Amino acid sequence: MSDTRPGHAPMDQFTVVDDCLQVGGIPLTRLAARVGQTPFYAYDRQVMTRRVESLHAALPEGISVHYAVKANPMPAVVTHMAGLVDGLDVASGRELRVALDAGMPAAEISFAGPGKSILELEMAMAAGITLNLESETELERVAAIAEKTGETAHVAVRVNPDFELKTSGMKMSGGPKAFGVDAERVPALLARIGELGLHFRGFHIFSGSQNLRAEALIEAQGQTFDLALRLAESAPGPVEMLNIGGGFGIPYFPGDRPLDLGPIAEHLESRLPEVRDRLPEAEVILELGRYLVGEAGVYVAEVIDRKESRGQTFLITNGGLHHHLAASGNFGQVIRKNYPVVVGNRVQGTEREVVNVVGPLCTPLDVLAQQMELARAEIGDLIVVFQSGAYGYTASPTRFLSHPEPVEVLV
Ligand SMILES: *Cc1c(COP(=O)(O)O)cnc(C)c1O
What we know:
Elements: E1 15-17, E2 20-23, E3 26-27, H1 28-35, E4 40-43, H2 45-58, E5 63-68, H3 75-82, E6 87-90, H4 93-101, E7 109-111, H5 118-127, E8 130-133, H6 136-149, E9 154-160, E10 170-171, E11 181-182, H7 186-196, E12 199-204, E13 208-209, H8 214-232, E14 241-243, H9 261-278, E15 283-288, H10 290-293, E16 297-309, E17 312-317, H11 325-328, E18 341-343, E19 352-358, E20 367-375, E21 382-385, E22 407-410
The structure holds pyridoxal-5'-phosphate.
The site of pyridoxal-5'-phosphate (PLP) has 15 residues, from strand 15 and helix 10.
């Protein structure tokens, strides 16, 4: 455990009884039998519920929380989240169908993403959701569809801000970007929306992901409010929604500290009066993915073989990179670090050892844990990767090497 403990304890989301991890209150060995196969992903609905409740309790009154479906689009998860949050953000036509199936009202669904197809734009307009426009071309396409079908186009402008979210896992703004319309070009776009007579909803300003530093998030949120207030002066109608992005991170690696919501909430509270005064109709929205679901999920694989090689022990499992690219370190990490891992059916174990946990793929990239101290595992034991509720299954190349796919359960 030494390498998962400093800074955070992801296992705190779950209980351990008789040295066996419980997910959704079910001992992992029993859950594995119930699922009927390994590997699998298990998501704990109670952990998601607690997370959204504590976030709402920390945030000032009147800040809405949206769930970014791409973090975990499993329909059962989206349906559960739909009952907890104020809206859903989708990034494809298929995610849109999942969001609508989850029962979220169209007025609370928005669709962002560059390169939306004509079909996706038509689906979105037929459903009556809000389209976050990513370019001038997209605006003209939307207007043409509105003209053809007689449907109302509800549009917001996704802005590529003139600042960035510092020290982010993934920067998505500032400088030249594929996302959104450059802030300096937004006034002209707003004028065109007015000319075309579309229903203007507001702004979407998302500047980055996976940030654990409250100060960096506060700085970006402050700049986001400033930018939105400035752009609102050129708006063709009242700003009804102001999506200020998210970027809240979760601790993955040794030394990572959970995000401190306190100062973020204080800062939001301090800016809200001015926003309410100048944009009285605006719903202020935080859109979050991994922060809401990432810690609620585990990935479980089974030990198929134990091997020694020149002084190191290798646990070979039936799961790996093809199911969980992020845990293998190949989803945007520069230096590979271990996700928190335990042997789920002997969490502490009496005997400990330092091992490499690898998958069955014929590539040295297929690693789930490198030189990590775990309980001594035998063939048939269950390896658990924590922090796997977001960007797991659907962010992985499941067809690589043609092994069976994992299954997903919500418990
Ligand atoms: C991916 C994405 C999110 C979710 O990011 P997380 O890091 O999971 O919170 C939110 N908004 C937009 C526009 C995105 O592209």
